[in-house]
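Dear Dr. H.,

I hope your travels went smoothly. While you were away I took the liberty of generating a structure for the chain from your last submission, since the lab meeting agenda had it listed for discussion. I wanted you to have the full record in hand beforehand rather than looking at slides cold. The sequence, exactly as received, is reproduced here:
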Amino acid sequence: MNAIYPEQCAPTPSCHASTLAEVEGRIIAAWFGGEHENHPEVKIYFAEFTDGIWSTPKIIARGRGPHGEPSACWNPVLFKDPEGPLTLFYKIGVTIAGWQTFKKTSEDAGLTWSHAEHLGGGIEGPVRNKPIKLGDRLICPSSTEPSWRAWLTYFSIQQSDRWTLIGPLNDIAEFQAIQPTLLTHRDGRLQALCRTRQGVIAETWSEDQGDSWSAMKSTGLPNPNSGIDAVTLKDGRHLLVYNDTVKVRSQLSVAISEDGERWDKIEELESGVGEFSYPAVIQVSNCDVHITYTNQRNTISHRVLSQL
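The corresponding predicted structure, in token form, is as follows:
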């Protein structure tokens, strides 16, 4: 394990919600950082992993309110379209309920970025985890938090320049569910795993490329109301990174599944005191799996898993 930056060299007192992508064989990451979550000066930071070393973090996005005042940035999501540029999605807002979605693009693997484009309310685009591209459809896992007791899961689908909203997918009387992560199966089905306030990871399935979804149900896997991330591997298996506890974010684990239903824990990334949370995971071109996650809210840790 290493950190994107050591705690003693942290560019900000607090950081959270990292995201990963591979561009031209290079691993890149982004996260939000500032005095604390929701502080108006919180910005989106970016770094590149080359020859085993992370570059010095740099700011790639700032938030502005309706009158030009500083406003907090949240939850960056990096996505490299196989047929297009690198895209950064992120949220801006004083509150989660008031989030607005913005995006920037880069044609040079993150060295320079376009001006921010406003997509609309907070549901457009991904809310925390990476989208997937199926043909000409970009399927973005999304959710809203209009109140503490009304967490709702959606999918935001972009086709050409048109956004279509699917959902909400959960009955809030059963699951307060947000921040889905997507898996693709050999038979064409999609599976979404969701963070909930019910102490479990919930799941829902689609058989029509995301246009409709099954009733949400429990996977049986624990969730302490904390973000998760997952990826379908090149060999068809599925890998999940999650807090393997019900109440605290101190244990962070990795599990593998052949079918998305039976999960076997293969690695414990963290089990110490404090917070280890909000993982991001990708598999890169050489088949290594890269994972980043929040470490105590003061740095972003990085792990590489090989020969899975």
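Two observations you may find useful: Residues 191 and 205 are 5 Å apart (CA to CA). The chain has a mean pLDDT of 96.

With kind regards,
E. W.
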